[in-house]
Amino acid sequence: MGKIRDSVDAKALRFAIGFPVLLAAAFVVCALLLRPDVPDPMAVRWSDAGPVGFAPFSAFVAVGALIITVVGWLALGQAAPLSRPTVMRRLLMGAGLSVTLFVTTALAAVLVGQAGIADVREARVDMSALALGSGAALALGVIMGFVFKADEQWSVDDERALQEALDRELDPELATDSVRLWVHARSSVFVMLGVASLFPAALISIALPWLGALLVVLAVLAAAFLFARIIVDRSGLRVFVAGFVRVMEVPAAAISSASPAEVRAADYGGWGYRHHGGTTAMLVSSGPAVVVNRADGKKVAVSGGSTDSAERVAAVLSRVAARARGEKRPPQP
Length: 333
Fold this sequence. Notes:
By secondary structure, the chain is of the alpha+beta class. The protein folds into 2 domains: about 1-145, no CATH class; about 170-185 and about 225-325, PH-domain like (Roll), CATH 2.30.29. Helix content is about 50%, strand content about 20%. The strands form 3 sheets. Strands 7-10-11-9-8 form a 5-stranded mixed beta sheet, with helices on one face. It has a 4-stranded antiparallel beta sheet with strand order 3-4-5-6, with helices on one face. Strand 5 and strand 6 (about 245-250) form a beta hairpin. Helix 2 packs parallel to helix 4, helix 3 packs antiparallel against helix 4 and helix 7 runs antiparallel to helix 8. The chain starts with a helix and ends in a 9-residue tail after the last helix.
Protein backbone atom coordinates (compact mmCIF):
# COMPACT_ATOMS: atom_id res chain seq x y z
CA MET A 1 0.00 0.00 0.00
CA GLY A 2 2.84 2.37 0.81
CA LYS A 3 4.39 1.77 -2.62
CA ILE A 4 1.10 2.71 -4.30
CA ARG A 5 0.91 5.94 -2.32
CA ASP A 6 4.50 6.74 -3.27
CA SER A 7 3.82 6.23 -6.99
CA VAL A 8 0.70 8.39 -7.39
CA ASP A 9 -0.28 11.99 -6.68
CA ALA A 10 -2.78 11.59 -3.83
CA LYS A 11 -4.53 14.92 -4.49
CA ALA A 12 -4.92 14.23 -8.21
CA LEU A 13 -6.19 10.73 -7.48
CA ARG A 14 -8.79 12.03 -5.03
CA PHE A 15 -9.98 14.52 -7.65
CA ALA A 16 -10.04 11.82 -10.35
CA ILE A 17 -12.25 9.64 -8.14
CA GLY A 18 -14.47 12.27 -6.56
CA PHE A 19 -15.21 14.67 -9.43
CA PRO A 20 -16.87 12.12 -11.78
CA VAL A 21 -19.01 10.84 -8.89
CA LEU A 22 -20.20 14.35 -8.04
CA LEU A 23 -20.80 15.11 -11.73
CA ALA A 24 -22.84 11.93 -12.12
CA ALA A 25 -24.86 12.83 -9.02
CA ALA A 26 -25.55 16.29 -10.44
CA PHE A 27 -26.71 14.70 -13.72
CA VAL A 28 -29.11 12.43 -11.82
CA VAL A 29 -30.54 15.36 -9.83
CA CYS A 30 -31.09 17.47 -12.98
CA ALA A 31 -32.70 14.50 -14.75
CA LEU A 32 -35.13 13.99 -11.87
CA LEU A 33 -36.07 17.69 -12.01
CA LEU A 34 -36.95 17.26 -15.71
CA ARG A 35 -38.74 13.95 -15.14
CA PRO A 36 -42.34 15.35 -15.41
CA ASP A 37 -41.60 16.87 -18.84
CA VAL A 38 -39.72 13.93 -20.38
CA PRO A 39 -41.49 11.00 -22.10
CA ASP A 40 -41.02 7.48 -20.83
CA PRO A 41 -39.54 5.56 -22.61
CA MET A 42 -37.00 8.01 -24.01
CA ALA A 43 -35.36 8.02 -27.42
CA VAL A 44 -31.69 7.04 -27.23
CA ARG A 45 -30.83 6.25 -30.85
CA TRP A 46 -31.65 8.07 -34.09
CA SER A 47 -31.57 7.47 -37.85
CA ASP A 48 -32.38 9.69 -40.80
CA ALA A 49 -36.07 8.88 -40.31
CA GLY A 50 -36.06 9.79 -36.59
CA PRO A 51 -35.81 7.92 -33.30
CA VAL A 52 -35.30 4.19 -33.69
CA GLY A 53 -34.10 3.16 -30.23
CA PHE A 54 -35.85 3.70 -26.90
CA ALA A 55 -35.08 3.06 -23.23
CA PRO A 56 -36.91 3.59 -19.93
CA PHE A 57 -36.17 6.91 -18.23
CA SER A 58 -34.72 5.23 -15.14
CA ALA A 59 -32.40 3.04 -17.25
CA PHE A 60 -31.19 6.06 -19.25
CA VAL A 61 -30.40 8.02 -16.10
CA ALA A 62 -28.70 5.10 -14.31
CA VAL A 63 -26.58 4.06 -17.31
CA GLY A 64 -25.74 7.70 -18.06
CA ALA A 65 -24.51 8.27 -14.51
CA LEU A 66 -22.46 5.06 -14.71
CA ILE A 67 -20.90 6.13 -18.02
CA ILE A 68 -19.96 9.55 -16.60
CA THR A 69 -18.34 7.93 -13.57
CA VAL A 70 -16.37 5.25 -15.41
CA VAL A 71 -15.20 7.57 -18.22
CA GLY A 72 -14.18 10.17 -15.65
CA TRP A 73 -12.20 7.67 -13.61
CA LEU A 74 -10.39 6.32 -16.69
CA ALA A 75 -9.67 9.76 -18.19
CA LEU A 76 -8.74 11.73 -15.09
CA GLY A 77 -6.87 8.84 -13.48
CA GLN A 78 -4.19 9.04 -16.18
CA ALA A 79 -2.82 12.21 -14.55
CA ALA A 80 -2.23 10.60 -11.13
CA PRO A 81 0.97 8.49 -11.67
CA LEU A 82 4.09 10.39 -10.58
CA SER A 83 6.24 8.43 -13.03
CA ARG A 84 4.92 10.53 -15.92
CA PRO A 85 6.49 13.87 -16.85
CA THR A 86 4.95 17.02 -15.36
CA VAL A 87 3.84 18.44 -18.72
CA MET A 88 2.21 15.15 -19.69
CA ARG A 89 0.31 14.98 -16.41
CA ARG A 90 -1.02 18.49 -16.93
CA LEU A 91 -2.16 17.67 -20.46
CA LEU A 92 -3.80 14.45 -19.28
CA MET A 93 -5.62 16.21 -16.44
CA GLY A 94 -6.95 18.89 -18.80
CA ALA A 95 -7.94 16.34 -21.44
CA GLY A 96 -9.58 14.11 -18.82
CA LEU A 97 -11.69 16.98 -17.53
CA SER A 98 -12.77 17.92 -21.06
CA VAL A 99 -13.71 14.34 -21.93
CA THR A 100 -15.71 13.88 -18.71
CA LEU A 101 -17.61 17.13 -19.19
CA PHE A 102 -18.24 16.38 -22.88
CA VAL A 103 -19.80 12.99 -22.04
CA THR A 104 -22.03 14.70 -19.47
CA THR A 105 -22.93 17.37 -22.03
CA ALA A 106 -23.94 14.77 -24.65
CA LEU A 107 -26.21 12.98 -22.18
CA ALA A 108 -27.69 16.28 -21.03
CA ALA A 109 -28.36 17.30 -24.67
CA VAL A 110 -30.32 14.07 -25.21
CA LEU A 111 -32.32 14.76 -22.05
CA VAL A 112 -33.01 18.45 -22.74
CA GLY A 113 -33.96 17.74 -26.36
CA GLN A 114 -36.89 15.59 -25.18
CA ALA A 115 -38.21 17.89 -22.47
CA GLY A 116 -41.73 19.25 -23.14
CA ILE A 117 -42.61 17.07 -26.17
CA ALA A 118 -45.89 15.18 -26.40
CA ASP A 119 -44.73 12.35 -28.67
CA VAL A 120 -41.40 10.57 -28.20
CA ARG A 121 -41.07 10.29 -31.99
CA GLU A 122 -40.48 14.03 -32.01
CA ALA A 123 -37.44 13.64 -29.76
CA ARG A 124 -34.18 15.17 -30.85
CA VAL A 125 -30.77 16.08 -29.48
CA ASP A 126 -30.62 19.70 -28.35
CA MET A 127 -27.76 21.02 -30.46
CA SER A 128 -27.61 24.32 -28.56
CA ALA A 129 -26.99 22.53 -25.27
CA LEU A 130 -24.45 20.25 -26.96
CA ALA A 131 -22.55 23.15 -28.55
CA LEU A 132 -22.51 25.30 -25.40
CA GLY A 133 -21.53 22.38 -23.19
CA SER A 134 -18.78 21.22 -25.55
CA GLY A 135 -17.29 24.71 -25.68
CA ALA A 136 -17.38 24.97 -21.90
CA ALA A 137 -15.80 21.51 -21.57
CA LEU A 138 -12.93 22.48 -23.88
CA ALA A 139 -12.35 25.82 -22.14
CA LEU A 140 -12.40 24.29 -18.65
CA GLY A 141 -10.02 21.56 -19.79
CA VAL A 142 -7.51 24.13 -21.04
CA ILE A 143 -7.79 26.07 -17.77
CA MET A 144 -7.32 22.88 -15.74
CA GLY A 145 -4.20 22.04 -17.75
CA PHE A 146 -2.67 25.40 -16.76
CA VAL A 147 -3.71 25.51 -13.09
CA PHE A 148 -3.11 21.84 -12.20
CA LYS A 149 0.00 21.61 -10.02
CA ALA A 150 1.71 18.44 -11.16
CA ASP A 151 4.82 18.72 -8.98
CA GLU A 152 6.07 15.62 -7.20
CA GLN A 153 4.69 15.14 -3.73
CA TRP A 154 6.58 14.39 -0.53
CA SER A 155 7.50 10.72 -0.65
CA VAL A 156 8.86 8.05 1.66
CA ASP A 157 12.33 8.60 0.14
CA ASP A 158 12.14 12.27 1.11
CA GLU A 159 11.06 11.30 4.62
CA ARG A 160 13.96 8.85 4.90
CA ALA A 161 16.45 11.45 3.65
CA LEU A 162 15.12 13.98 6.16
CA GLN A 163 15.42 11.49 9.01
CA GLU A 164 19.00 10.65 8.02
CA ALA A 165 19.87 14.34 7.89
CA LEU A 166 18.36 14.88 11.35
CA ASP A 167 20.26 11.89 12.73
CA ARG A 168 23.53 13.27 11.38
CA GLU A 169 22.74 16.70 12.82
CA LEU A 170 21.95 15.31 16.27
CA ASP A 171 24.89 12.88 16.23
CA PRO A 172 27.84 14.20 14.17
CA GLU A 173 29.79 10.98 14.80
CA LEU A 174 27.19 8.90 12.96
CA ALA A 175 28.97 9.38 9.62
CA THR A 176 32.24 8.04 11.04
CA ASP A 177 30.52 4.89 12.31
CA SER A 178 29.82 3.54 8.84
CA VAL A 179 32.07 1.76 6.34
CA ARG A 180 31.15 0.17 3.02
CA LEU A 181 33.95 -1.74 1.36
CA TRP A 182 34.42 -4.03 -1.64
CA VAL A 183 37.24 -6.59 -1.53
CA HIS A 184 38.38 -9.01 -4.22
CA ALA A 185 41.15 -11.43 -5.06
CA ARG A 186 44.29 -10.32 -6.87
CA SER A 187 44.04 -9.85 -10.62
CA SER A 188 46.48 -12.71 -11.18
CA VAL A 189 43.95 -15.09 -9.63
CA PHE A 190 41.29 -14.09 -12.16
CA VAL A 191 43.78 -14.43 -15.01
CA MET A 192 44.69 -17.91 -13.80
CA LEU A 193 41.01 -18.80 -13.47
CA GLY A 194 40.33 -17.61 -17.00
CA VAL A 195 43.22 -19.55 -18.46
CA ALA A 196 42.21 -22.71 -16.58
CA SER A 197 38.57 -22.54 -17.67
CA LEU A 198 37.97 -20.49 -20.82
CA PHE A 199 40.61 -22.16 -23.01
CA PRO A 200 39.49 -25.72 -22.13
CA ALA A 201 35.87 -24.60 -22.56
CA ALA A 202 36.64 -23.37 -26.09
CA LEU A 203 38.11 -26.76 -27.01
CA ILE A 204 35.36 -28.78 -25.34
CA SER A 205 32.61 -26.72 -26.99
CA ILE A 206 33.69 -28.06 -30.39
CA ALA A 207 32.46 -31.50 -29.41
CA LEU A 208 30.03 -30.71 -26.58
CA PRO A 209 28.85 -27.08 -26.65
CA TRP A 210 26.70 -27.46 -23.54
CA LEU A 211 29.64 -28.77 -21.52
CA GLY A 212 31.82 -25.85 -22.65
CA ALA A 213 29.08 -23.39 -21.68
CA LEU A 214 28.72 -25.12 -18.29
CA LEU A 215 32.45 -24.77 -17.68
CA VAL A 216 32.27 -21.04 -18.45
CA VAL A 217 29.32 -20.61 -16.07
CA LEU A 218 31.19 -22.40 -13.29
CA ALA A 219 34.24 -20.17 -13.88
CA VAL A 220 32.09 -17.04 -13.65
CA LEU A 221 30.50 -18.25 -10.42
CA ALA A 222 33.92 -19.04 -8.96
CA ALA A 223 35.13 -15.54 -9.88
CA ALA A 224 32.01 -13.96 -8.35
CA PHE A 225 32.67 -15.73 -5.06
CA LEU A 226 36.07 -14.09 -4.91
CA PHE A 227 34.31 -10.73 -4.49
CA ALA A 228 32.78 -9.60 -1.22
CA ARG A 229 30.92 -6.52 -0.02
CA ILE A 230 31.49 -5.53 3.61
CA ILE A 231 29.13 -3.22 5.46
CA VAL A 232 29.93 -1.93 8.94
CA ASP A 233 27.58 0.41 10.77
CA ARG A 234 26.02 0.78 14.19
CA SER A 235 24.03 -2.43 13.70
CA GLY A 236 27.25 -4.45 13.36
CA LEU A 237 29.06 -6.32 10.59
CA ARG A 238 27.50 -7.75 7.43
CA VAL A 239 29.35 -9.55 4.64
CA PHE A 240 27.89 -10.35 1.21
CA VAL A 241 29.56 -12.81 -1.14
CA ALA A 242 29.44 -11.68 -4.80
CA GLY A 243 27.92 -8.47 -3.50
CA PHE A 244 24.44 -9.77 -2.66
CA VAL A 245 24.58 -13.20 -0.94
CA ARG A 246 24.69 -12.54 2.79
CA VAL A 247 26.99 -15.03 4.52
CA MET A 248 27.85 -13.18 7.75
CA GLU A 249 25.98 -10.98 10.15
CA VAL A 250 27.48 -10.11 13.51
CA PRO A 251 25.43 -7.72 15.69
CA ALA A 252 27.38 -4.91 17.30
CA ALA A 253 26.45 -6.09 20.80
CA ALA A 254 27.93 -9.54 20.05
CA ILE A 255 31.38 -8.16 19.20
CA SER A 256 33.98 -8.38 21.94
CA SER A 257 36.88 -6.87 20.00
CA ALA A 258 38.13 -6.29 16.48
CA SER A 259 41.68 -5.85 15.24
CA PRO A 260 43.52 -5.68 11.91
CA ALA A 261 45.88 -8.51 11.09
CA GLU A 262 48.00 -10.01 8.32
CA VAL A 263 46.58 -13.47 7.64
CA ARG A 264 47.23 -16.44 5.39
CA ALA A 265 44.08 -17.79 3.74
CA ALA A 266 45.40 -21.34 4.16
CA ASP A 267 45.27 -20.92 7.96
CA TYR A 268 41.51 -20.38 7.69
CA GLY A 269 40.70 -23.14 5.22
CA GLY A 270 41.45 -21.29 1.96
CA TRP A 271 39.86 -18.61 -0.16
CA GLY A 272 36.15 -17.87 -0.09
CA TYR A 273 33.60 -18.48 2.64
CA ARG A 274 34.93 -21.02 5.15
CA HIS A 275 34.25 -22.56 8.55
CA HIS A 276 37.56 -23.58 10.08
CA GLY A 277 37.58 -24.70 13.70
CA GLY A 278 35.77 -22.03 15.71
CA THR A 279 36.35 -19.35 13.06
CA THR A 280 34.09 -18.25 10.22
CA ALA A 281 36.09 -16.59 7.47
CA MET A 282 35.43 -14.77 4.22
CA LEU A 283 38.86 -14.26 2.70
CA VAL A 284 39.43 -13.40 -0.94
CA SER A 285 43.20 -13.48 -0.57
CA SER A 286 45.99 -13.63 1.95
CA GLY A 287 47.05 -10.30 3.40
CA PRO A 288 45.30 -7.52 5.35
CA ALA A 289 42.18 -8.69 7.18
CA VAL A 290 40.05 -7.93 10.20
CA VAL A 291 39.71 -10.51 12.96
CA VAL A 292 36.61 -10.12 15.12
CA ASN A 293 36.31 -11.82 18.49
CA ARG A 294 32.69 -12.55 19.37
CA ALA A 295 31.31 -12.47 22.88
CA ASP A 296 30.46 -16.18 22.62
CA GLY A 297 34.12 -17.08 22.06
CA LYS A 298 33.93 -17.61 18.30
CA LYS A 299 35.93 -15.65 15.75
CA VAL A 300 35.19 -14.04 12.41
CA ALA A 301 37.81 -13.10 9.82
CA VAL A 302 37.14 -10.99 6.74
CA SER A 303 39.48 -9.57 4.11
CA GLY A 304 40.22 -5.91 4.61
CA GLY A 305 41.43 -4.94 1.15
CA SER A 306 44.39 -2.78 2.13
CA THR A 307 46.14 -2.18 5.44
CA ASP A 308 44.48 1.23 5.84
CA SER A 309 40.99 -0.03 5.09
CA ALA A 310 41.43 -3.01 7.44
CA GLU A 311 42.49 -0.67 10.25
CA ARG A 312 39.51 1.57 9.56
CA VAL A 313 37.04 -1.35 9.62
CA ALA A 314 38.53 -2.63 12.88
CA ALA A 315 38.35 0.83 14.46
CA VAL A 316 34.70 1.33 13.47
CA LEU A 317 33.76 -2.14 14.72
CA SER A 318 35.41 -1.39 18.05
CA ARG A 319 33.50 1.88 18.36
CA VAL A 320 30.08 0.48 17.45
CA ALA A 321 30.62 -2.54 19.72
CA ALA A 322 31.49 -0.28 22.65
CA ARG A 323 28.50 1.93 21.90
CA ALA A 324 26.16 -1.10 21.71
CA ARG A 325 27.39 -2.31 25.12
CA GLY A 326 26.85 1.14 26.59
CA GLU A 327 30.55 1.70 27.18
CA LYS A 328 32.46 4.90 26.59
CA ARG A 329 33.49 5.11 22.96
CA PRO A 330 37.21 4.41 22.57
CA PRO A 331 39.22 7.25 21.02
CA GLN A 332 39.80 7.17 17.29
CA PRO A 333 43.34 6.12 16.28
